[in-house]
């Protein structure tokens, strides 16, 4: 289909800008409340799951850099990079093409075959859409998770494509065409990014047609198993990039919402998800189990210092 080609083209253009770029001088700073380093109760650290972002793969140089950096701080750390396909090229393709719910089921089976203590479980770090998928994995997979860290992740979906440069009429028309087809069955069943597209201006269609996000956000109905697994977390850490040019709105990384009438941002603790505790955000927040962190840089511009901070504080 022609629209598939256009959508895939724009997504492949996006992915070239979305990979982790390695050491820089950006600094993580905590927002709202400072997270104290976790006191270790055992000499053995929990294994860590990593889930890469769109257009990346589990064995890429960027993910290897993440793993190496974490192990600089904790040399004994066991790290597992989640994959959809062992072939790196196919794994990258699967970050764009496929069905998110099916992928979650496959990953759940994958990690259940890893040797780990079922009473302790895993810590997990996700990058961009990988952070959203890890949060969904916490909810859908009967495996224990301790701390979950998401970097620049569309936790409350995306409401627009990355903006065009001023005056780029072709880009604007292309984006308008893509958005007009985003809730068709074909796109929802085959394009990963469309499955977390959440159009607040067409919310009814979103609730009717969304193939993924409405379920893991408990917007259609409240799945108590999803809720119970999520609130069992020790920490949910959401990192936002203050100059994020890819995530629209960037505040989705902190689970903000948008007003359907005005388009204004709705802060985390004023959203319906929080107010009605749909997935357990209010319960976790009331217990001091949610940390908001910010990096003053572009999307996924993560420094070694940032990752060392995460390793010291949460792993």
From TrEMBL:
Tagged with keyword Signal: yes
Keyword Signal annotated: yes
A single MF term (Gene Ontology): palmitoyl-(protein) hydrolase activity
Origin: domain of life: Eukaryota
Pfam families linked: Palm_thioest
EC number annotated for this UniProt entry: 3.1.2.22
SUPFAM superfamilies: alpha/beta-Hydrolases
Coiled coil: none
Keywords attached to this entry: Disulfide bond, Glycoprotein, Hydrolase, Signal
EC class: hydrolase
PANTHER family: PALMITOYL-PROTEIN THIOESTERASE 1, PALMITOYL-PROTEIN THIOESTERASE/DOLICHYLDIPHOSPHATASE 1
Protein name according to UniProt: Palmitoyl-protein thioesterase 1
Taxonomic source organism: Pichia membranifaciens NRRL Y-2026
Organism phylogeny: Eukaryota, Fungi, Dikarya, Ascomycota, Saccharomycotina
């Amino acid at each position: 289909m022609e629209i598939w080609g256009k959508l895939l083209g724009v997504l492949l253009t996006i992915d070239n800008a979305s990979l982790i770029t390695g050491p820089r001088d950006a600094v993580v700073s905590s927002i709202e409340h400072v997270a104290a380093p976790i006191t270790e109760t055992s000499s053995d650290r929990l294994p860590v799951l990593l889930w890469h972002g769109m257009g990346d793969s589990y064995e890429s140089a960027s993910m290897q850099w993440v793993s190496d950096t974490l192990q600089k701080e904790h040399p004994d750390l066991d790290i597992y990079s989640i994959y959809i396909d062992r072939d790196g090229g196919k794994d990258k393709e699967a970050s764009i093409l496929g069905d998110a719910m099916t992928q979650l089921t496959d990953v759940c089976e994958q990690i259940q075959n890893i040797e780990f203590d079922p009473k302790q479980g895993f810590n997990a770090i996700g990058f961009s859409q990988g952070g959203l998928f890890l949060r969904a994995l916490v909810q859908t997979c009967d495996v224990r998770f301790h701390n979950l860290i998401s970097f620049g992740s569309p936790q409350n979906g995306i409401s627009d494509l990355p903006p065009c440069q001023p005056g780029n009429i072709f880009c604007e028309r292309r984006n308008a065409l893509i958005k007009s087809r985003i809730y068709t069955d074909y796109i929802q069943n085959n394009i990963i990014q469309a499955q977390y597209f959440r159009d607040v201006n067409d919310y009814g269609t979103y609730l009717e047609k969304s193939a993924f996000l409405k379920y893991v956000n408990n917007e259609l109905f409240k799945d108590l198993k999803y809720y119970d697994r999520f609130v069992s977390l020790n920490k949910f850490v959401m990192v936002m990039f203050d100059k994020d040019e890819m995530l629209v709105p960037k505040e989705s990384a902190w689970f903000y919402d948008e007003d359907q009438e005005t388009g204004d941002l709705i802060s985390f603790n004023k959203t319906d998800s929080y107010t009605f505790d749909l997935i357990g955000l209010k319960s976790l927040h009331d217990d001091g189990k949610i940390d908001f962190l910010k990096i003053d840089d572009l999307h996924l511009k993560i420094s070694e210092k940032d990752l060392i901070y995460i390793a010291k504080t949460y792993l």
